Amino acid sequence: MNDLDALEAQSIYILREAFNRLDKIAMLWSIGKDSNVMLWLARKAFFGHVPFPVLHVDTHNKIPEMIEFRDRVAKEWNLPLIVGENTEALAAGMGPHKGRVECCTALKTEGLKALLAQHGFTGVIAGIRRDEEGTRAKERVFSPRNQSAEWDFKDQPPEFWDQFKTDFAPGTHLRIHPLLAWSELDVWRYIERENIPMVDLYFAKNGKRYRSLGCAPCTGSVASTASTVAEIIEELETTKISERSGRAQDKESEDAFERLRAGGYM
Amino acid sequence: MSSIATALKVNPEVSVSHSASPMKIVVVGHVDHGKSTLVGRILNETGALPEGKVEYLKEVCDKRGMPFEWAFVMDALQAERDQGITIDTAQIRFRSEARPYVIIDAPGHKEFLKNMVSGAASAEAAVLVIDAHEGVQEQSRRHGYLLHLLGLRQIAVAVNKMDLVDFSQARFEEVKAEIVAYLNSIGVEPTYVIPVAARSGANIASVAAETPWYKGPSVLGALDLFEPAKPLTDLALRFPVQDVYKFDERRIIAGRIESGRLKVGDTLVFAPSGKMAKIATIETWGNVASAVSAGAGQSVGITLDEQIFVERGNVASLELHAPNQSHDLKARVFWLGKGPLKVGSRYKLKLATAEHVVDVVAIERVIDVEDLANHQGSEVARNAVAEVVFRGKSPIAHDSFIDNPRLGRFVLVEGYDIVGGGVIAEASSDEARNRSTHVTEVPHKVDAETRAIANGHRGGVVWLTGLSGAGKSTIAMEVERQLFLKGWQVTVLDGDNVRTGLCGDLGFSDSDRVENIRRVGEVAHLFAEAGMVVVTSFISPFRADREKVRAINPDAFHEIHVTTGLDECERRDPKGLYKKARAGEINDFTGVSSAYEAPALPELALATEGKSVDESVADLLRYIDNAFSLSAREQANGWGL
Description:
- The complex is a heterodimer.
- Chain A is of the alpha/beta class.
- Chain A has 8 helices and 8 strands; from the N terminus they run αβαβαβααβββαββαα.
- A 6-stranded mixed beta sheet of chain A has the order 3-2-1-4-6-5, with helices on both faces.
- The radius of gyration of chain B is 33 Å and the shape is elongated.
């Protein structure tokens, strides 16, 4: 087994654990590279089926190409897609001009919470990785959230020998993170190996590309000439620019991302 | 299938430089000994930090009015930076020239041991950080102990903050001697002990000028010398069933191969049912060529040639190398629960994909990780280590941790929480039986001496052994009658009588005979302790079993070999058993179809051939009188005369 085989096997094990141990699970699909890989892994784990709903929280601020990609792939792969949004906040005119952390919290976190409450999900599969950011580096694979979807990062459950927390109080839920051990480079090497479709925005045009995809107003592109998967891999092998450097909401304050995540952000 | 799914192609040119999985290293040690600083330094020296990270952290430190803190690279949480301690384990990657790494920074604060274990349990090797100034502290030892318990064998020691002791070789040697002595005592030989100043970077990535007396590698050099974990494909097949899928016409048994290999056509046996079936296919998805075999680490799905009932928690193996199955598990447990683990408590035990309800039947010893002393106790406190015996409601398929770590380890769940972990000890059948040794013996207020004086004789066991028909029962009953008439406290334990009650559940297989004798031995010694003379009448053909009974209390055990030969016994045949045995109606009959191992050095060899019963009884009574009577002097002393 090479390293990608090992990562794949581990992620499949995690997905199967979540499917077996939890009553009502769903997978978050942000249309980004990580969640596309995660979806691919789910189809491998369940032999071509995706036996749970795929959730997309629409902030109405996503880049149009992403929505187009979502609808096309959902149809081709016959995905049980559920699209949700925080209708109230959108109607009240929420947007990044009200503060980026506030906007993320209202449209993403609260939008997700509403979806969870509406469908009674007890487990949400999310494609976060440890190498993205300092607080995600401290995450568990099965990570509990309390009744307000908050993350108690000061008192996380022990997790070892692939024995995950699968018992939890009513009203609380688990976030399941099958890609936690993957790096950005692993993700792209796996995309290359498996030929997984990606939104075009990742590939450089006119000297620029997106490394991380989010909402249009808060996602910046990086200078790059990498226009194929192979070139992206080459670029990542030498870069010293952090992956979320284009994500504005992380930088509002020292602990902006920590606060976002503690409050229930992915 | 859609165009996207079928457009797959496997690219054989996956870049070779990344084909090895990163080595997972955990950094542990006492709080504030500089683990996170060391890690931050390694990341910096290997160029692993993204552009602007150091500048950003400088800003963060300036805002707080403090000098630059390398630890902030790992201590990403606000609370960690505010308190200057690592709360939870973080994993960050870097590359040396030799290979990629994932470095796990584990908290040293006692409060966060569960987080330290969470980080350390997945590591292949460890760096134990010790403050040169403070020396070896409580968590240094605890972490060292736990690393070993978790199965980690490669440990390098970094003696940090050497700048605070002026890079003194003498101080380094002191700390080194102390930690090496401790690690050796738990069976660990550290690969290197390295003098380090993480803050200034001395001996982190290259050998420092400040320690010319040190001849070993830098920390990074020591990491590169660790051996990668060996794949578990060489061990016996263990395939715990994770789930059974029926998405379409296929019934796929899904799971991860924990050890060994399987291939199409192999006959699998499933524990605990013992049901067997052959592997028909190994299922795959996508354009991957169908597989004919798979090995440890792979998550697979198989179909069987027969529709046997299989469910999550079953363990598939090859027939000749099946895991152990028992209700009882003896394990070394590290306890992370908020309240103590107690005898009599019930937990959910998760082992591979199985879940069992277990009761704690014994806490054999609580281990003090400070001085490795053993303590008796009925509770295990938070963060402590103990040897515990669990009893499951149903048999538990397992291996000892040494034989196969994947099936030799488990976690305990109480309520909603994982509250501890354990590694399974090697269990001999004797150990399994002696599970009640945790019981603290309550001393009698009437001692053996007092009883002997009151009775006028000592208590003890007169163990008659010999072939069926040798005369054991006849002699035993008459001896009992005569001693009783003399006013002695006496009873007989007789084979056939015991087998209707105490041992009514046992047959005559070798293992049942062993257990029969064990029980009788224990009961006989209890009577003897009560001051009685216990005459036992059992063929007890195996020398080893009799020696075990003797071992319970050698001083009170008297082995009497009733030597009547096989021919004479068969001639007497009082119960007609030899006849039946010769006719093949009785299996395992001692002397005919099962061996009798005569005592080598019995206390008394009692001949019956050519003697009357009365003569044999008189011979034995003489021996008993000699061996058990108190002398006039002893009696006089006893009454205080």
